[in-house]
Amino acid sequence: MKVGLFVPCYINQFYPKVAIDTLELLEKFGLEVGYPLNQTCCGQPMANSGYEHLTGSTNELFTQNFAGYDYIVSPSGSCTLHIKDHLHSDEAPAEAKNIRSRIYELTEFLTDIIKIDNIKASFPYRVGLHQSCHGQRGLKLAQMTELTAPAFSKPEQLLKMVNGIELVPLTRADECCGFGGTFCVAEEAVSVKMGKDRVADHIKNNAEYITAADMSCLMHMEGILKRQKSPVKVVHIAEILNAAMV
């Protein structure tokens, strides 16, 4: 199985350890992982701001970079969903269509494709799990609490395999953090208030760390935590799943 690693631009620029942990994690499960060096932003910020008609070159580049891989895996639910729903190519439409059906967010790939049932990782801390909106509502990584349906969470399923971890129950398990990509720029006050509410839920329930499958949400909450001088830290789920893994 040949896997292409898609690293979102903000992870590449600000949180490279998340990309490294994702790579190491996939390799530890025996996968052949390739990293196209020419990859850039997937175009989601432009598309979310109403400029999808300007994302043509990013779409073509993405298609060129990831053609030929059995699967494409990314440590970002929002970027994965954007590619899955919007990637198109005038030069290679068939390949773009194939990529849309072969791209997976990391936890989705681990649970649904290679179906791991054991992770030799250790993270002895109290952890609150933030269910990011794009992952939960777009990729169906977890059930929405407003639905009368069986509960599930793919990120939680993986975290429960980690030695020493204590998952903290939250009062509002799937509440939005308020980041929303360019929403946090266009609606700053609303975004900040939502972020403060989301952080407060974790703090109230004595979490030492907040984790998620989207570093963008964690980045937003990290800014709020730092401004509040809170000891609570953020950590991407890939960093937990790769922690002390042997």
From TrEMBL:
What PANTHER family has UniProt attached to this entry? LACTATE UTILIZATION PROTEIN A, UNCHARACTERIZED PROTEIN YKGE
Q: What name does the UniProt record give this protein?
A: (Fe-S)-binding protein
In this chain the Cysteine-rich domain maps to 3-84, 127-221
Q: Which InterPro entries match?
A: Cys_rich_dom (IPR004017)
Domain of life (superkingdom): Bacteria
Q: What is the lineage of its organism?
A: Bacteria, Pseudomonadati, Bacteroidota, Sphingobacteriia, Sphingobacteriales
Give the Pfam families listed for this entry.
Answer: CCG
